[in-house]
């Protein structure tokens, strides 16, 4: 899809972020087992005194996307208590 307008950008982002439409992660995207890196990343993301982004980096096929999906589901589960905006820009394709 050529990114030529704001509408196309929004469509592209919605296609990469299905939880924007339904409010929850598709079950096939969230694995039940959580690794140490998940808990460490959530600790830094939920740190109260500092507003920040959490960057997951590492070699290919080590579980970064799985951890990110688990983190997004955790934040969506808490959305009833706070405003949550989770975005996954798939930048490796560009």
Verbal overview:
The protein is an all-alpha fold. It has one domain. The protein contains four helices and no strands. The protein has helices at 6-16, 19-22, 36-45, 64-77. α3 crosses α4. The N and C termini lie close together (11 Å). The mean pLDDT is 80.
Q: Summary?
A:
With 94 residues, the chain is mainly α. It contains four helices and no strands.
Topology order in helix (H) and strand (E) letters: HHHH
Mean pLDDT over the residues: 80
Strand content: under 5%
Helix content: 40-55%
Number of domains: 1
Pfam families: AAA_14
Organism: Acetivibrio straminisolvens JCM 21531
Domain AAA: 51-76
Protein name: AAA domain-containing protein
Give keywords.
94 residues, mainly alpha, 41% helix
What is the topological layout?
Layout: H1 6-16, H2 19-22, H3 36-45, H4 64-77
InterPro entries: AAA_14, P-loop_NTPase
Organism: Acetivibrio straminisolvens JCM 21531
Pfam families: AAA_14
């Amino acid at each position: 899809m050529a990114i030529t307008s704001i509408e196309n950008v929004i469509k592209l982002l919605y296609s990469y972020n299905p939880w924007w439409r339904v409010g929850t992660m598709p079950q096939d995207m969230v694995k039940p087992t959580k690794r140490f890196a998940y808990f460490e990343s959530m600790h830094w993301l939920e740190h109260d005194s500092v507003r920040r982004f959490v960057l997951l980096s590492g070699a290919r096929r080590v579980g970064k996307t799985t951890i990110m999906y688990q983190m997004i589901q955790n934040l969506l589960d808490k959305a009833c208590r706070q405003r949550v905006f989770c975005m996954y820009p798939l930048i490796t394709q560009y």
